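Our collaborator T.R. sent over the components below with a one-line note: 'Predict the complex.' Nothing else. No constraints on interfaces, no templates requested, no preferences about which chain binds where. So this is a plain run: every listed entity goes in together, and whatever single assembly comes back becomes the starting point for the next discussion.
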Amino acid sequence: MIVAVDCSVFGFDGQHLKILLIKRGFEPCVEEWSLMGGFVQPDESADEAANRVLKTLTGLSGLYLEQLQTYTKVDRDPIERTVSIAFFALIDIHQYEQRLNDQFHAEWFKLDEIPDLIFDHPQMVQTARQKLRYKAALHPLLFELLPQRFTLPLLQSLFEDVYETKFDKGNFSRKIISTGMLIKQKEKDRAGSKKGRFIISWIKNITGRTFTPS
Amino acid sequence: MIVAVDCSVFGFDGQHLKILLIKRGFEPCVEEWSLMGGFVQPDESADEAANRVLKTLTGLSGLYLEQLQTYTKVDRDPIERTVSIAFFALIDIHQYEQRLNDQFHAEWFKLDEIPDLIFDHPQMVQTARQKLRYKAALHPLLFELLPQRFTLPLLQSLFEDVYETKFDKGNFSRKIISTGMLIKQKEKDRAGSKKGRFIISWIKNITGRTFTPS
DNA sequence: AAAATAAATGTAAATATGACAATTAATACC
DNA sequence: GGTATTAATTGTCATATTTACATTTATTTT
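Returned assembly:
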C-alpha cells in the first residue's frame, strides 16, 4: 500500500488567511489544483516526509506542522491504493520564496475562493480549517503566521479573519497582553498610520499558557 | 508499506476507567501485552478495519470510534516497515462478551496499572487518554461508556475518574441537566441505595451542545 | 494648532464559576 | 410508625470572566 502525505499550508498576507495550492504537473489529474504532497519514503517518517515536501515547496524548514488525520478510503486515489496522512502547516507568507511559484505552479488562495481540488483534498482543507480554529482558541498558534515582528492591530486582524468576526480593540489588547507572551519593542511601524504602531514579538514555547480571544 | 490500525478501547466498570489489552499470540513479541490491532485490507478503509478489529475483539458493532493519529517512525515495528493508524473506542463494558477474553487473552486494566506494551503502544495510550479528556470537556462523549440507562451518581463518578478529581454534586447536576441531553425516567435503580437513583438516558446527536463539568 | 489614530484604561451589566449549606423526597430497616 | 440514609434539588454568596461601550492619553503628520 502506498503511504503519502498532503499538506494544507496556511499563510496570512495582512488582509486574509490564505492557503497554498499547486497545479499538478503529473498524472493523474494533470493541470488540476491540489494540496502539496508526496510519498513517504522507506527511510523517513511521515513528519519527515511532510517537512521535506514543505521544504521543497516553500524553501522553508522548521515550519509549524501538525498531523491532522489520515485519509484511507479505498478508491480515494483512482490509480493505486494510497492512504494519505494529512498535515497542516503555518508559515510566514513573507518568507515564502515567490520564485518557487513558477517551479511548482503554486498559488495562494483566499479560503472563500478555493478552486476545485482533486481526490479528497477539499475535505482535508475543511478539516484543516476547523482544526486551526479549534486549536487556536486554546493555544498560541496563529503567531506562526506572522513575521517575528508584528503589530497588535495586525494580530487582531488575523484573529478576526480566522474567526470571521470582529473583536473589541480594548478587550483584545487586554486579553492578548495578559498572556505574557508578547514583548513590546521600542520601535514602531509607521506604514500607513499617523501615530505608528508598536512592534511586538512573541515568546515561543512558553509553558502551559493558553488563551482565547474575546 | 504495511498499514495497520491499533485501538485503545476504553470501558468504565462503575468504579474506574479501564482499557482493554490483549496478550499477543503471535510474533513478534509473543506473550507481550499490546493494543488490539490488525492490518488494513485492500478492500477496506482504516475505519472499516478498526471496526472489524473491534467486532472481532468485543463482539460489538457501531462503537464510538475516533481516529487519533498515525504513527510512522521508520523502526517502530522491528520486523517490517509498518505505519499504524491509532484509534480510540468507547464501549459499554457490560456489553462486552467475557467469553472473548479467553479467545484473545484480553484483559481490562485500570489506567494506573497498565503493563508494559509493545512498540509505540504506550504513546498511543497516552495520546488516547489526553484526547479523551480534551474532547470530553467540550463534547458529550463519556456517555458512550455507560449503558443506555444509567444514573446521575454513576455519571458523576465516571467524570471524576476521567478527570481524576471530585466535582460538587449540586453544581454537577445543574450543569449536566442544563445541557438538555438527559432524560429522566420514571424508574429507579435500587441497588445499594436507600432512596434509589433515578434512571436517566441521553439523547445522541443533539446538535451543537457542548459542556464542561464544573 | 488640529486631525488622526494607536494604546491603554474605565466602567458596568450580564454571565459563569466554585464552594458550601440547606431542603425536600423516597425508601429501607428497626 | 419512626428513624436513618441518601438522592435530588435548590439557595446563596463571593469571585471571576465576558462583553459592550466609552474615555483618556500619547504620538505623530499635516
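Summary for T.R.: The first strand of chain B starts at residue 2 and ends at 12.
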